[in-house]
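R.M. (postdoc): so does anyone remember the format we settled on? I'll just put the C-alpha cells first.
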C-alpha cells in the first residue's frame, strides 16, 4: 500500500492485542500510521501498541499540514477529522475504510484517557 501523504511504501506490522492480532500499516518515509476501521480503538487499550508510533512527532507535524489526501483503499478524498474529545488532534478518515495518523498523533490519541483524568483533577483543584 502507498502512503496517502508522501506516496512512499507502507510496511505492515502485526500487533498482538487481547483478542488476536491487528495489522496496521506504517509509512517507511514519514512514519504515518494507517488503521483500518476499528483498529485504532482496539490498539488504544493495548500496551503493546506503545512502540508502534515510532516516528518523529516533529516530522509528523509537518505532514499534518498535508490534509487533502485520498484513501489508500478506495482513492476517495478523506475527511479531515478533529477528535471530539481532543480538538487539537487532527487526522484524516475514510468512513468506509479507516484513518490515517501522522507520526506522534497515535500516541496523543492513546493518552487521551490519561489527559482527561489529569484535566479533571486540575478542574477539581481549581474549584476549591
Ligand atoms: Zn508517508
Ligand atoms: Zn476508503
Amino acid at each position: 500500500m502507498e502512503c496517502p501523504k508522501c506516496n512512499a511504501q507502507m510496511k505492515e506490522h502485526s500487533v498482538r492485542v487481547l483478542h488476536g492480532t491487528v495489522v496496521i500499516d506504517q509509512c517507511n518515509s514519514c512514519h504515518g500510521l494507517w488503521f483500518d476501521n476499528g483498529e485504532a480503538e482496539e490498539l488504544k487499550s493495548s500496551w503493546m501498541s506503545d512502540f508502534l508510533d515510532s516516528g518523529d512527532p516533529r516530522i509528523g507535524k509537518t505532514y499534518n499540514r498535508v490534509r487533502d489526501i485520498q484513501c489508500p483503499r478506495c482513492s476517495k478524498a478523506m475527511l479531515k477529522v478533529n477528535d471530539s474529545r481532543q480538538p487539537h488532534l487532527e487526522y484524516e478518515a475514510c468512513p468506509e475504510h479507516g484513518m490515517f495518523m501522522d507520526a506522534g498523533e497515535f500516541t496523543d490519541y492513546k493518552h487521551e484517557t490519561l489527559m482527561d483524568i489529569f484535566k479533571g483533577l486540575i478542574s477539581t483543584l481549581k474549584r476549591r
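R.M.: ...and that's the designed sequence above, right after the C-alpha cells. Also worth knowing: Residues 3, 5-6, 8, 27, 29-30, 32 surround zinc ion (ligand 1) (CB under 6 Å). Residues 10-127 form one domain.
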